[in-house]
Amino acid sequence: MGGSIRQQKFNKLVLKELSDIFQRDKRGLLDNSLITVTDVLVSPDLGIARVYLSMMLAKDKQSILDNINLHKSEIRKALGDKIRKQVRIIPDLVFFIDELEEKATKMDALIDSLNIPTAPSDGE
């Protein structure tokens, strides 16, 4: 986690509020898919926030991401309504699919499927 302390605090604030927006306010927008905000990285000027979303059980992730991007202005307005008294700048939102968990699950499955012979003991 890089950046200044100011950026880190802003990251946490945006992550918390966007998580709340996706879980409560925008359920209809997301076709009732479970979306988790895994990370937020803001630019040094706090003008752009890169938002990473996890969609573990979603079938068509790209269409959900496209739908989120279509309603980006509504999401940004909802974020602004929540944090306007705490910050001066409401960042532009750029959404990305976070596939880290899926890659980890695939790696675990690959490791579990390996047939590793036991090491011979010193007496053999």
Question: Can you describe this structure?
Answer:
- The chain is α+β, with helices and mostly antiparallel strands and 124 residues long.
- The protein has a single domain, classed as K homology (KH) domain (GMP Synthetase, Chain A, domain 3).
- It has 4 helices and 3 strands, in the order αββααβα.
- The chain has helices spanning 5-25, 61-70, 72-83, 100-113, and strands at residues 36-42, 48-54, 92-97.
- It has a 3-stranded mixed β-sheet with strand order 1-2-3.
- A hairpin with a 5-residue loop joins strand 1 (36-42) and strand 2.
- Helix 1 (5-25) crosses helix 3.
- The protein is extended and about 70 Å long.
- The termini are far apart.
List the helices and strands and how they pair.
Elements: H1 5-25, E1 36-42, E2 48-54, H2 61-70, H3 72-83, E3 92-97, H4 100-113
Parallel strand pairs: 2-3
Antiparallel strand pairs: 1-2
**Fraction in beta strands:** 15-25%
CATH topology description: GMP Synthetase, Chain A, domain 3
Number of domains: 1
Supply the CATH class: Alpha Beta
Radius of gyration, in Å, reads 20 Å
Quaternary state reads: single chain
Percent helix, as a range, is 40-55%
Structural class: alpha+beta
Largest sheet: 3 strands, mixed
Supply the number of helical segments: 4
CATH H level, superfamily name: K homology (KH) domain
CATH architecture: 2-Layer Sandwich
One letter per element, helices H and strands E, the order comes to HEEHHEH
The largest beta-sheet arranges its strands as: 1-2-3
Quote the distance from N terminus to C terminus.
49 Å
- Total DSSP E strands: 3
Low-confidence segments, ≥5 residues, pLDDT <50? none
Shape type = extended
Average pLDDT number: 85
